[in-house]
Amino acid sequence: MKQLDVFARRNQLPTYDASHPPPSDWTVSLILLTELRYESFKPNHIRVSKAAENFSEPNQLAIHVGAFAVLQTMPQGYPVVLAFEVLLAIFIIWTTMQLTLRYKSSPSLFGPLYLADSLTGFWSETWHNAFASPCESLAYKPARSLAKFGVPVVVARSLGVLGAFTLMGIFHIYALEPILPRESLERIGLFFLLNGIGTVFEAALWGRKKHWIRTLLAWTFETCLATWTAQAARIPSGLHNVPWKELCGRTEEF
User: Which of 14, 80, 217, 231 is a Cys-bridge partner for 227, taking CB atoms 3.0 to 4.6 Å apart?
Assistant: First the structure.
């Protein structure tokens, strides 16, 4: 995904801006090929919500770990519980990696999940932005350019959003294909596609207007869709049922 993004931007690569003078060409090339968010370059595609501008990532990690622990005490047979556990697990794992590997100047990877107030805000500002750049270069911009051929700008923009979500669906299906059954993969693909459709319709209906009804509808839609997706996944019911030996690559001795 990263290599495709760099290829798509080959004629207009971002400019290294982290230090002056810049390091050697090979060092800049290595950074260019490894930074998902182009943090050392301008322009980049990091979008941080106002709620996340001055918040503490370690504190937010502790809050979300606490929420995950509470869910672990609940009956694990309910898909809605598993859906929220997956959401929190992704937040916890990625934020832990971010705090371990980040630059001192790195902006936050996530916003506080509990402050999401719309589908648009969730996917553009709250959820992690690690793949924002390839979504733009490989899906959004090509679709958006259809406006040059007479396609209405609103339609081209909506197609770009749908294209970005479709790209993410394909990427997740490819990444998870070795470990998940076909039905689960199909639902993951539909999860992203339906989120794209929902985001487009929400933006068309509400625009930039914030309202508690919009927030309620967004949370209801996302919870129902995530629950439906989790029903087909082979997710262990609680941490105590996770096959840790298999995950760690250990096999039983014969």
Answer: 80
Dihedral pair phi/psi, residue 252, rounded to 5°: -70, 140
Q: How far is CA 47 from the centre of its chain?
A: 12
Residue 140 vs residues 163, 167, 192, 197: alpha-carbon distances, Å: 6, 10, 15, 14
Q: What confidence tens digit (pLDDT) does each residue in 167-177 have?
A: 999 999 999 99
Per-residue b or e along 39-77, where b marks 16 or more CB atoms closer than 10 Å to that residue's CB: bbbeebbbeebeebeeeebeebbeebeebbeebeeeebe
